[in-house]
Amino acid sequence: MFRQAWQKINSMKKIFLPIVLLFSLTVVAQENMHPSPAQTGTIALTNGVIHIGNGEVIENGMIVFSNGKIVDVRPSSPIMDIKVFDLKGKHVYPGVIASSTNLGLVEVSAVSATADYEELGDINPSIRSLVAYNTDSKVINTLRSNGVLLAHIVPQGGTISGTSSVVQLDAWNWEDAAYKTDNGIHFNMPSLINVPVQFRRPGANDDRVKQGLEKIEGIRNFFREAKAYRNEIMHASVNLKFEAVKGLFDKSKTFFVHCTLVKEMMVAIDLAKEFNFKLVLVGAEDSWLITDILKQNNVAVILSQPHSLPATDDDDVDQPYKTGVALQKAGILFTICQDGGDGFWRQRNLPFQAGTMAAYGLTKEQALSSITLSAAKILGIDNITGSLEKGKDANIVISEGDLLDMKSSKVTQAFIQGREINLDNKQKQLFERYKYKYSIK
Amino acid sequence: MKKKSFLFLLAAAIVFFAGRLNAQSTFPVNDVANPKEGCYAFINATIVTNAQTTLQNATLVIRKGKIEAVGTKLTLPKDAVVVDCNGKYIYPSFIDMYSDYRSETAQKSGGGQRGQSQFLSTTKGAYGWNQAIRSENDAATSFAVNDTKAKDLRAIGFGTVLTHQMDGISRGTGAVVTLANEKENLVMLKEKASANYSFNKGSSTQDYPTSLMGSIALLRQNFLDAQWYKTKPAGEGTNLSLQAFLDNQLLPQIFESSDKWSDLRADKIGDEFGVQFIIRAAGNEYQRISEVKSTNASFIVPLNFPQAMDVEDPTDARFLALADMKHWEMAPSNPAAFEKATINFALTANGLKETGSFFSNLRKAIQLGLSEQKALKALTETPATLLGMYDKVGSIETGKIANFLITSAPIFSEKTIVYQNWIQGNKYTLMEDGWKDIRGNYNLVINNTAHTLSVTGDISKPSAEIIGTDTTKVDLKIKDKLVLMVINYKKDSANAARLSGVISEDAWSGTGETIGGKQLSWTAVKAGNQVLAADTTGKKKKDAVAAVGGEITYPFNGYGFTTIPIQQNILIKNATVWTNEKEGELANTDVLIKNGKIAAIGKNLSDVAAKIIDGTGKHLSPGIIDEHSHIAGTGGINECSQSVTSEARIADVLDPEDIDIYRQLSGGVTSSHILHGSCNTIGGQTQLIKLRWGASAEQLKFSNWDPFIKFALGENVKRSYSQSNNRFPDTRMGVEEVLTDAFTRAREYEKLPAGKRRDLELDALVEILNKKRFITCHSYVQSEITSMMRVAEKFGFSVNTFTHILEGYKVADKMKAHGANASTFSDWWAYKMEVVDAIPQNAYLMQKAGLNVAINSDDGEMARRLNQEAAKSVKYTDMSEEDALKMVTLNPATMLHVADRTGSIKTGKDADLVLWSDNPLSIYARAEKTIVDGIVYFDNEKDKLLREAIVKERARLIQKMIGAKKGGEKTSPAAPSFREKNYCEEDIHTDKAFWGKIEKNNLSIDNQ
Predict the structure, then answer these.
(1) Dihedral-angle region of residue B714 (phi above 0 means left; psi in -120 to 50 means alpha; beta otherwise)
(2) Partners of residue B322 in chain A, C-beta under 8 Å
(3) What is the interface size between A and B, counted as CB pairs within 8 Å?
(4) What DSSP designation does B650 have?
(5) Rounded to the nearest 5°, which phi and psi values hold at B890?
(6) DSSP state of B397
(7) Which of A391, A422, A417, A341 is nearest to A142 (CA)?
(8) Nearest to A311 among B865, B990, B993 (CB)
(9) Could you please report the per-residue DSSP string of A178-227?
(10) Closest B-chain CA to A352
């Protein structure tokens, strides 16, 4: 405790000055950007290549939305009396969903004063990410301009790190941003593999598997108690931790288990079975080894970034690129994420991570589905977003070329709930500033 | 002449009589004096006097701890105690020249990275500055007889060891002692017999060195300093460490290695300073035996072969690397590999977890091809000769110390018993049982009833049965001369009896009792010897050799080559060729490769000798060059202990077997600039390599290349995220001053007259001043970029490259004026304070300002996708595709001064090429063939086969390990394999891709 506090003070001292400079010199313009007002009336986007998100493409299509909701998607045809954007062959996509991220909970990874994603303590289900989500983060705008319009904000740390929420990325404050509030509880599975011999310290208790299993047993007991607590309406004193996980038992909340190895995933499946939880595995790098089991148990996966190195020296050198392909072939519902401490700014590359999966065996539309409709299904928001279908929110991205390929991806317009959002960001502004300096047109 | 011969005779006479004279001693006796001649005669023995010579039916006479005579038909001295060794073998006791018999193994270093740094040694006394240089450490002065340890070593045949304290980089001297349980004064044969070294700083708590390259630099500097110290430099005063280092130079120089590549590292240092090290081998030399042989060193080879792991659980087995399983299978072939390569070597028991496994491991080595003769030589004559002690130990010859073993059979046979280990004429009994071979048929008479008793089985644990119509097992127990036999007749239980008696030569006799309590007397007289079964070791040997199913591959892992590939003519037909030259992109074009060079570019080329690769629909680009990489290094790539470590060299620590080399080839990378990390202002010297998978460390190096060095500025070097930095500097103000100070010192150093202390750190800086070495400088914010340039200008040179340079766009005009190149990330930002203004348009802006710009990885994963990282400039700006690709090919070649040889597709340049499935800037592009110097190192077709072979080979070895476990071999619990991965920041992290997650320790995404 003391050490951490001290560390924070220490790093505050070091960064105080640069922060002041930053604010006073360079980011004034960024602060003038503002969220768009609610959409009213009807808008049509015509003559676009419409990638629905469910695998279908309308080559020359149009999409009509009204008061934030999609009212029509079909081949282009003449339309009267409404505002029309002629896309002239541009590509239209559902807004990309960052399915597991600490976006808005951190501004600069190395500066702990800006980090709000890891709380102290071990079992923290009542900790809520949404309340710390900073809509004014400079990072958010850099995601939108690459087509990421929604994000699942996930707390990290501890064994049960807390409750996550889904936000839309164009808001004045976290209450406006909330898209699906408190939709899941996050369990960080203890490691069930021993450390390499080189890391063992003489005399240390190195049986990590045993330690891990003991910890898991503790979590099991926690849920048993929570379940019993839920059965009784009257309580002498309120237990906030038990209250927070109530929704898992009626499946109004999803049980997200962050794990990597086969044994860890198997334990997660067993745990979810015992309590009849709706289970989603996050990370799940070795999920390609147990696709049958995942399919049988109807487990969904938020796969760690394809742009990773293989887990072992002997693995296929492109294994992480094609793990999603194995899941797709097995019929498992999956999306991809960029997790870890730097999982905020890196979300802007999510479309390209999907593109890599397309290079290694998915069709392009499957790759797109994985980061749109599949993500929405996993997060329980597919009734309102994830694809360009009638009745859903008008969360739309328009790109000059293929959104999944950096060679051609140029996002020109985007809509969240029908509102056309400002695609400017701090980086573009700095670009303009220095184009001016060097007289670059 | 006459006088000289007289002296010689006198000396000879003294030597002769010395053995017979009363041995005086200063030590008082608290008892009645008990002087002894200690004269023994061992007769009727098979005496193996040395590895080449065996005397049958021979006699050995010893007196006063020395060998008096050996031979056949000797006259026995009257005062000799005669020991009949009929049927037994006598060997010289073994010598272990790599032992820490005298002392405990040093505790691991507690040097505190990221905590408070310790800059100087805490050793008390007039010693040197570095705690890992312990040249003054003298094994003889701290030696103490430890009979518990000695007993373990005697039990496996050793009589003499060279002991030293295994602690530090320069470890001081070793002493030769016998393993007799006598006074220290009497067992010490040579007090200074070796000088010992390693790359491991051991118990030193001092920060320097934090890395293998630092250890190497420290040792090299120490060699130089010792020479300089001869001049008695006033500024140094008395330095006992340096004095000792100098004094020790005349001794055999022994270097402990922990890896085959470190054998070569040690030897290279030896070559530089005129020292031929004897190398304590790591155990994996068989994987590169020809390179190891090229050192011309003698080796001390361990027998600590890895244990099988318990891999029954497939989820555990998954994380045991094929390389480690292969090594488990092949490690016992290491000694044989030395023999086959005709390398001079000794064997050591050092490193064995249990000394008890010495003989069984040695037999494994013999099964895999080590000859018994060589094994014996490596345990006797060779170590004695290497230590200059063959006149005293190592064979059974008159005048030598009476160190010998008495065994039941040839020493390396499986069931051989070592009965006694005589050291300095003292008998140490290892096994009593079986000294007398009682096996054979006996006429057993119990109360006048005759039976035939047959004694068979192990000489030390014989079993017995009564032969007859109703053959009955006898429970036979022998203790020295006493015998107990329990006879249980199955059918005739009335005759069941318990017999107790004494063995007196070939006649046994005693009393007993029947089951009914009736008293018995009995005798047994030997009627004939047992017919011994034929020796089957020869057959076993063949079986075992056949049992090694694996092959050595280059590198030694699943993706290695079984034979190192060679150049051939290649003709790539009909591809879209990205030339990076004024021709631009050429459609439907052929490229011919000859002798590793691009021989022709054009349409309809032909070459009958060439292998044809169809490029239809594919794209051919120059190989990707990564300006900033940390792959292929070992022992850490950060020497963080001081702010200036220009003496450290990446070239010393290349690891050519890093799997990331292969993975990056699979992403089209052909050259990587391997940099020191960014934890200090003036880091180490860098190394440009070509990704020649399968080559040795030396062969990886890009030849005739202008040397570079890594500098760093900003948060990492001022340790912004440390909790308690005490290493200067702590601010960017201080960083600038570190630079100014270093170059000021370098300039003054250069001007010093001849005879100066050669300073490896300043040498590198002088090279910079003289434009013989070039800087690549890790940098982020505009203030520090400008400061660095101004310091350089003040000293008359320019900064070749700013790497990372995320705010380069803010001062691109100044950089242009200075003449710097820029090597940056495509889109990284927000991971630390100094990158909050980083923008993905940086590369474009710098290029527009006229700079030569590259995109680098600084990341083992991202390096596989550098082409796509470059493509991000196309996305975020108006950069053309051709210009984007140049940022990862021609532009880095230019800034590394090798654009005359690589970076574009031009006749005469090196054939460093990639054939892509698609436009190389597209996310959908996959490298299908990656060619370096005209050799296809990555080929997606071959890669498929390798994957299948890996699965098969893993399955075979897992089954073999499971079999070993079932067969009763000791196994250790499954543990994942470990591979070092290096990052720009200070710590050696574990494999981030995997362990980072497993450990759940939130390793921040590297570089930084």
Answers:
(1) left
(2) 313-314
(3) 206
(4) G
(5) -70, -40
(6) -
(7) A422
(8) B993
(9) EEEEEEEEEEEPPP-SPPPGGGPPTTS---HHHHHHHHHHHHHHHHHHHH
(10) B923
Are B493 and B480 in contact by the 8 Å Cβ rule? The answer is no
Mean pLDDT of chain B: 91
Contact A193 B871 (CB under 8 A): no
Closest CA–CA distance from residue A352 to any residue of chain B (Å): 7
On chain B, the residues whose CB falls within 8 A of the CB of A3 are: 723
User: Shortest Cα distance from A429 to chain B (angstroms)?
Assistant: 10
Of A14, A345, A407, the CB nearest to B921: A407
DSSP A306-366: SSS--SSTTS-TTHHHHHHHHHHHTT--EEE---STTTTGGGGGHHHHHHHHHHTT--HHH
Residue B84: strand, helix, or coil: strand
Q: Which of A285, A288, A294 is nearest to A266 (CA)?
A: A294
| Mean pLDDT across chain A | 92
Q: How confident is the model at residue B23 (pLDDT cuts 50, 70, 90)?
A: confident
> Region A302-312: what's the mean pLDDT?
95
Inter-chain touch B1005–A341, beta carbons under 8 Å: yes
Say yes or no for a CB contact (<8 Å) between B924 and A358: yes
End-to-end CA distance of chain A: 54
Largest CA distance in chain A: 79
Burial label for B283, CB within 10 Å (0-12, 13-18, 19+), is buried
Using CA coordinates, name the residue in chain A closest to B839: A427
Helix, strand, or coil (residue B1008) = coil
A315 or A14: whose pLDDT is higher? A315
* Cβ contact, residue pair B558, A262, below 8 Å: no
pTM of the model: 0.92
- Give the separation between CA B283 and CA B327, rounded to whole angstroms: 9
Residue A15 pLDDT > 50: no
The number of CA neighbours under 13 Å toward the Cβ of A183 is 20
Q: A345, B321: Cβ pair inside 8 Å?
A: no
Contact A352 B922 (CB under 8 A): no
Model pLDDT, residue B659: 96
- A312, A399, A400, A429: best to mutate for the B interface, most B CBs within 10 A: A312
Residue type (1 letter), B783: S
Complete domains list, chain A, with CATH? 25-95+387-441 (2.30.40.10), 96-385 (3.20.20.140)
* Residue B821 main-chain phi, psi, to 5 deg: -100, 165
Position B654 pLDDT exceeds 70: yes
Q: Which domains does chain B have, with CATH numbers?
A: 94-393 (3.20.20.140), 440-529 (2.40.128.120), 624-933 (3.20.20.140)
The residue in chain B having the minimum alpha-carbon distance to the alpha carbon of residue A159 is B1000
Rounded Cα distance, B748 and B745, in Å: 5
Q: Say which residue the tokens 């997650």 belong to.
A: B997
ipTM entry: 0.93
Q: What mean pLDDT is predicted for residues A231-241?
A: 94
Mean pLDDT of B690-719: 96
pLDDT band for B5, please (50, 70, 90 cuts): low
Over residues B631-641, mean pLDDT: 93
B612 neighbors B573 (Cβ within 8 angstroms): yes
Please report residues of A whose CB lies closer than 8 A to that of B832. 108-111
Taking CB atoms and an 8 Å cutoff, what residues of chain A touch B978? 196-199
Per-residue pLDDT tens digits for B549-565: 889 999 999 999 999 89
**Amino acid occupying residue B561:** F
When CB atoms are compared, the residue of B845, B865, B976 closest to A196 is: B976
In this structure, what are the phi and psi dihedrals at residue A18, rounded to the nearest 5 degrees? Answer: -55, -35
| Closest CB to B720 among A14, A109, A356 | A14
| C-alpha to C-alpha distances, A334 to A269, A298, B799, nearest whole angstrom | 16, 11, 48
